[in-house]
Amino acid sequence: MFHFSRWGQMKDIIVQCSIETPLNDVLWYPCCKVVANKFVYNVLNMLLHILPAFVTDIFLKLLGSKPMMMKIIKYFNQLVAATAYFSTHEWTFHRNNITDMMKKVKTLKDNDIVKLDLKDMDWKKYATNYMMGIKKFILKEDCKSMNVVRQRLSLYV
Fold first, then answer.
1. Would 94 be classed as within a structural domain?
2. Does residue 53 contact residue 72 with C-beta atoms inside 8 Å?
3. Which intervals hold domain Fatty acyl-CoA reductase C-terminal (predicted)?
4. 33 near 39, Cβ under 8 Å?
5. Higher pLDDT, 93 or 151
6. How much is the average pLDDT of 16-45?
7. 1 in a structural domain
8. Residue 142 within a domain
9. Structural domain range at position 117
10. Residues 15, 31: contact at Cβ < 8 Å?
């Protein structure tokens, strides 16, 4: 039985990788606060997401551009609502099949090629590769531009 209760560690890794592998059009470095109280979450969401998005859309309108931040926040809030049940409950995954498969793989000649044990998983490397894949294959961004984005973001820190 594999018990994963390290949301805070995983969150820290993802935030760190988001900073090291920034998306081209981000306005500031990402951060993530985990709160258990729904009221506190709603207040923080209002102050940290909705209000800045509203103000940004006003500036975009004044500059003659199309406002888009409130639309993005709407999709973000829908994503949070859709995943809330899964992220707010404790889950236990039984891995009997994987354990049996690991025993069988150990008997193979090339057993060092197949890695099935997540205890040895390098989550930082996984998250970095995941972020690079999102950048390159989903958002179609040039990975070579990361240094330019980092320099631009460092002006705001």
1. yes
2. yes
3. 48-141
4. no
5. 93
6. 85
7. no
8. yes
9. 7-154
10. yes
DSSP secondary structure, 44-103, as one string:
HHIIIIIHHHHHHHHHHHHTTPPP-HHHHHHHHHHHHHHHHHHHSS---B--HHHHHHHH
Predicted pLDDT at 111: 64
Would you say residue 2 has pLDDT above 60? no
| Selection from 72, 46, 69, 71 nearest residue 56 by Cα | 69
Q: Which of 35, 80, 82, 74 is nearest to 54 (CA)?
A: 74
Task: Please choose, from the candidates 68, 47, 42, 72, the residue with its C-alpha nearest in 3D space to the C-alpha of residue 56.
Answer: 68
- Residue 2 in domain: no
pLDDT exceeds cutoff 70 at 153: no
Residue 157 has pLDDT above 70, yes or no: no
pTM over 0.70? The answer is no
Q: Does residue 3 carry a pLDDT above 50?
A: no
Give the whole-angstrom CA distance, residue 115 versus residue 51: 45
Number of domains in the chain: 1
Contact 125/32 with Cβ under 8 angstroms? no
